[in-house]
Amino acid sequence: MTDPKPAHEIEAVFRQKGIPFTRQRRQIWHFFAGADRAVTITEAADALRSDGVGQATVYRSVQLLSDLGLLARVQDGRGEICYIAPPIGHSHPLICGVCRTVVRFDGDGDVAELEARLAAATGFSIYGHHLEVYGICPSCRSAREGEHGE
Amino acid sequence: MTDPKPAHEIEAVFRQKGIPFTRQRRQIWHFFAGADRAVTITEAADALRSDGVGQATVYRSVQLLSDLGLLARVQDGRGEICYIAPPIGHSHPLICGVCRTVVRFDGDGDVAELEARLAAATGFSIYGHHLEVYGICPSCRSAREGEHGE
DNA sequence: ACACCGTTGAGAACGGTTCTCAACTGGATT
DNA sequence: AATCCAGTTGAGAACCGTTCTCAACGGTGT
Q1: A108-122 vs B108-122: helix crossing angle, rounded to 10
Q2: Strand D contacted by A19 CB (< 7 A)
Q3: How far is it, in rounded angstroms, from Cα B37 to Cα B32?
Q4: Which of A16, A53, B13, B131 could form a disulfide with B92 if both were Cys (CB 3.0 to 4.6 A apart)?
Q5: Torsion angle of alpha carbons A116, A122, A126, A131, nearest 10°?
Q6: Distance, angstroms, CA A70 to C1' C1?
Q7: Does the predicted TM-score (pTM) go above 0.90?
Q8: Residue A134, strand partner residues
């Protein structure tokens, strides 16, 4: 529902913190931002190996990008840890359990009210939440129907 | 806000599926159900080793219990994978980022409406969601204030 | 051109998870 | 009670994703 942040905005985050936005970091971020689905670190490393990006660098950069809030960790239908490039602002992923396509949405309005109630009821100071919704996307559903019902 | 399922109810789930509820499985489930906080598999294995429960069995049983819906996977403040014994019915965890204490709550009413909107907007068939809320529990907060402000 | 300091890549090391296989357990059968 | 059998268990090996090590590299300022 929103697009990933543009590259120059990512670069700005690095610049602002005085962290070099190297070729490898750009390539790694670009890989996640370009995929419209959640991908694992292993997949990214495999894809970028031929581009001359080392495995260790992929791990280090994903860590870095996550710390900077430029990559978000989610898990797919089988519980595998994947990463996605979040769009501008706070949002939540709707993930297809079959092909891992991700659609982002903003559900904060719904959660904010819930959080206020929780804080009042429990005395916790609430500082965050994590919401993922799982489903089957239209194209995977029709593909599946093609298989089963004949 | 609700208590974990009682042991006999767990046993009933096993019996119903024709899966043996062995001593080790009981001990493992009991360990998670008895902890009022999220615990890692490693912690469980360490704690149960002296009781004669092998590490491989802990991994296998946690897998099994998760598949049966008797254990839910969450992640703590540092992203570590933990498990908790969910209470009767569907609920969500409110996790303390410091001590990993878990308070369960039922937020399905809030999410159901959101899911309906999402399904309509995206065409996905929604089959589930994962909601965790993070905060600092009252006792960790006062402990922290004791340290800082003097 | 040079020095400096953070980044990178290859490979080793590490550690959590899974696999292997023989021993065991408990329920059903005789 | 003895036997059988399918499923479970534990010890340790194997596996594989992740982190660490260290020498080479790059690019920034002087």
Answers
A1: 170
A2: no
A3: 8
A4: B131
A5: -80
A6: 38
A7: no
A8: A95, B128
* Chain A 55-94, CB < 7 Å to strand D: 55-56, 59, 63, 81
For residues B147 and B47, give the distance between their C-alpha atoms in angstroms, rounded to a whole number.
30
Six token digits for residue B116: 């309906």
* Residues 6 or more apart in contact with residue A14 via CB below 8 angstroms: A20, A21, A25, A68
> pLDDT tens digits, residue range A30-66?
999 999 899 999 999 999 999 999 999 999 999 999 9
pLDDT digits (tens, 9 = 90+) for B84-136: 998 767 889 999 988 999 999 988 888 999 999 999 999 999 999 999 999 99
- Chain A hits for B110, CB-CB cut-off 8 Å, are 110-111, 113-114
| Mutate: best of B131, B139, B140, B145, partner A, most A CBs <10 A | B131
Please name the residue that has the structure tokens 């008797």. B70
Tell me the longest C-alpha to C-alpha distance in chain B.
59
Three-class DSSP category at B63: helix
